[in-house]
């Protein structure tokens, strides 16, 4: 009797539990259904105002962004006016600088917006250059726009420093090691050949003295990373030519090409504007080269270890330190009359420091790229503003285009010959030779330097410097858009496309000699 009652009680408990379990499940499912309703309803209620805002009175999207950017630019003018006063009003240097900056910015954005569906993107720097040219030659804008030569020179030299820093940080030691032979041939051969051919052609066609001819040759002899690098990265992302490392080769060689052109220009610049004999000028140039390299190595080793990796905001501190040191070196060398030393110091400093940074190097490059985004409109706008239609000679444009075109044909042909023993097929050699023609950044920096120096210390040489400026302007205007179009159109047609997942990306396997 005692054993049966607990069993009955146990059965009753099981019945109670079994009967209550469905009710509990129903209750929980009902509660979950109510909770999901409660969670869904607020989300829909929150999204309703957002959907309604798109059609509301305050504009959204692109129009809102344009109005915001316009208000920011206007407030920059107001702040500068509050600090400087009449300098930011018409005929003031800061006013002219803001006009050129705004116009160049708008010109670059217009080229980004105006795009044909089947045509590759044209570099925005062309719009910036034309905007500065319009500011100089449109009557109303030219009357109210004035920029002092000292301010223009300082800004262009600062832009040159940023170019050198980006070139130094962009050099990949591993890529240079694996592609050293073909990379050196591509970076040095075409630049030297175009410089020499330009000197000969300008001597007989434009009546240039030999030293001015070589100076002009090194101005137009540099290829533009601002055009070549984005185009090569675009082809590399799609897998064109990556098996033989063609995009990597052109990206690495473009920086070395600019280094050689800037070094050669500085040497010719010292010879042209110095009163001593040629041997003393060559020795002083070698002295500047050695001094710049040594100082760059010392400062680069310092920037490699300071600030330490345990500090906060490491990439910001490194970017500020390397930019400040390089700008001080470039501008300080101009004050001491050693132009070659400052540029080489900035280049060696950034390369030496970058080799010691592992993952932070990319972040530093992004910060310095932001600085370039600010100085790029200023650089090309100022270069465009240096060219006046009224001051051009009647035959200056024809002779300039003829000199530049003949030298460019020699450069393309020589590049094709240099690539003949590098393991590339016929189509790839044609592509590399034509891709090695765009000119922009170095020409924008070096072109006005001779004109500025002649105005200050040698007025009798001003005619030659104006011709150098004209050739540099036309070189950018003609080769930058055409080079970008040739790379964008010809690359997918002549380069072999490979699947990145099946291609071994190590450069050590490349059969290039």
Automatic annotation (TrEMBL):
<dbReference type="GO" id="GO:0005886">
    <property type="term" value="C:plasma membrane"/>
</dbReference>
<feature type="transmembrane region" description="Helical">
    <location>
        <begin position="212"/>
        <end position="233"/>
    </location>
</feature>
<dbReference type="GO" id="GO:1902600">
    <property type="term" value="P:proton transmembrane transport"/>
</dbReference>
<feature type="region of interest" description="Disordered">
    <location>
        <begin position="1"/>
        <end position="60"/>
    </location>
</feature>
<dbReference type="InterPro" id="IPR006153">
    <property type="entry name" value="Cation/H_exchanger_TM"/>
</dbReference>
<feature type="transmembrane region" description="Helical">
    <location>
        <begin position="396"/>
        <end position="418"/>
    </location>
</feature>
<feature type="transmembrane region" description="Helical">
    <location>
        <begin position="63"/>
        <end position="83"/>
    </location>
</feature>
<protein>
    <recommendedName>
        <fullName>Cation/H+ exchanger transmembrane domain-containing protein</fullName>
    </recommendedName>
</protein>
<comment type="similarity">
    <text>Belongs to the monovalent cation:proton antiporter 1 (CPA1) transporter (TC 2.A.36) family.</text>
</comment>
<keyword id="KW-0472">Membrane</keyword>
<dbReference type="GO" id="GO:0015297">
    <property type="term" value="F:antiporter activity"/>
</dbReference>
<feature type="domain" description="Cation/H+ exchanger transmembrane">
    <location>
        <begin position="113"/>
        <end position="481"/>
    </location>
</feature>
<keyword id="KW-0915">Sodium</keyword>
<feature type="transmembrane region" description="Helical">
    <location>
        <begin position="89"/>
        <end position="111"/>
    </location>
</feature>
<feature type="transmembrane region" description="Helical">
    <location>
        <begin position="471"/>
        <end position="495"/>
    </location>
</feature>
<dbReference type="InterPro" id="IPR051843">
    <property type="entry name" value="CPA1_transporter"/>
</dbReference>
<feature type="compositionally biased region" description="Basic and acidic residues">
    <location>
        <begin position="31"/>
        <end position="55"/>
    </location>
</feature>
<keyword id="KW-1003">Cell membrane</keyword>
<feature type="transmembrane region" description="Helical">
    <location>
        <begin position="340"/>
        <end position="358"/>
    </location>
</feature>
<keyword id="KW-0812">Transmembrane</keyword>
<keyword id="KW-1133">Transmembrane helix</keyword>
<feature type="transmembrane region" description="Helical">
    <location>
        <begin position="370"/>
        <end position="390"/>
    </location>
</feature>
<dbReference type="Pfam" id="PF00999">
    <property type="entry name" value="Na_H_Exchanger"/>
</dbReference>
<feature type="transmembrane region" description="Helical">
    <location>
        <begin position="285"/>
        <end position="304"/>
    </location>
</feature>
């Amino acid at each position: 009797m005692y054993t049966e009652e607990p069993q009955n009680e146990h059965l009753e408990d099981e019945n109670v539990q079994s009967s209550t379990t469905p009710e509990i499940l129903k209750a929980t499912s009902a509660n979950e259904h109510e909770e999901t309703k409660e969670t869904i309803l607020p989300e829909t209620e929150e999204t309703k105002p957002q959907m309604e805002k798109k059609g509301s009175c305050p504009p959204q999207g692109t129009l809102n962004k344009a109005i915001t950017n316009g208000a920011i630019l206007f407030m920059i003018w107001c702040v500068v006016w509050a600090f400087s006063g009449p300098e930011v009003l018409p005929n003031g240097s800061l006013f002219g600088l803001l006009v050129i900056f705004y116009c160049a910015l708008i010109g670059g954005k217009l080229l980004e917006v105006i795009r044909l569906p089947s045509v590759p993107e044209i570099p925005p720097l062309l719009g910036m250059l034309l905007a500065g040219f319009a500011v100089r030659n449109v009557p109303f804008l030219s009357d109210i726009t004035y920029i002092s030569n000292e301010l223009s020179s300082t800004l262009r030299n600062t832009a040159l420093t940023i170019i050198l820093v980006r070139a130094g940080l962009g050099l990949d030691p591993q890529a240079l090691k694996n592609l050293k032979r073909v990379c050196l041939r591509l970076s040095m051969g075409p630049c030297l050949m175009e410089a020499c051919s330009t000197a000969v052609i300008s001597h007989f066609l434009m009546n240039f003295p030999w030293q001015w001819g070589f100076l002009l040759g090194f101005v137009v002899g540099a290829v533009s990373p601002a055009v070549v690098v984005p185009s090569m990265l675009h082809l590399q992302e799609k897998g064109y030519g990556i098996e033989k490392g063609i995009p990597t080769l052109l990206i690495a060689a473009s920086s070395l090409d600019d280094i050689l052109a800037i070094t050669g220009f500085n040497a010719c610049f010292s010879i042209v504007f110095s009163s001593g004999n040629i041997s003393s000028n060559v020795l002083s140039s070698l002295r500047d080269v050695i001094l710049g390299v040594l100082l760059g190595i010392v400062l680069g080793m310092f920037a490699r270890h300071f600030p330490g990796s345990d500090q906060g905001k490491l990439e910001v501190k490194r970017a500020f330190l390397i930019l400040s040191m390089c700008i001080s070196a470039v501008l300080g060398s101009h004050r001491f009359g050693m132009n070659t030393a400052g540029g080489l110091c900035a280049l060696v400093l950034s390369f030496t420091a970058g080799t010691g940074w592992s993952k932070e190097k990319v972040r530093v490059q992004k910060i310095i790229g932001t600085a370039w985004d600010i100085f790029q409109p200023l650089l090309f706008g100022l270069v465009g503003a240096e060219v006046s239609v009224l001051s051009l000679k009647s035959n200056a444009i024809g002779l300039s285009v003829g000199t530049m075109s003949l030298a460019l044909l020699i450069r393309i042909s020589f590049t094709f010959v240099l690539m003949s023993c590098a393991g590339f097929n016929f189509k790839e050699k044609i592509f590399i030779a034509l891709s090695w023609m765009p000119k922009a950044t170095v020409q924008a920096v070096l072109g006005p330097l001779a004109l500025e120096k002649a105005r200050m210390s040698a007025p009798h040489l001003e005619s030659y410097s104006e011709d150098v400026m004209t050739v540099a302007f036309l070189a950018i205007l003609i080769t930058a858009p055409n080079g970008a179009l040739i790379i964008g159109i010809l690359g997918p047609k002549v380069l072999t496309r490979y699947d990145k997942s099946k291609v071994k990306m190590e450069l050590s396997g490349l059969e290039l000699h």
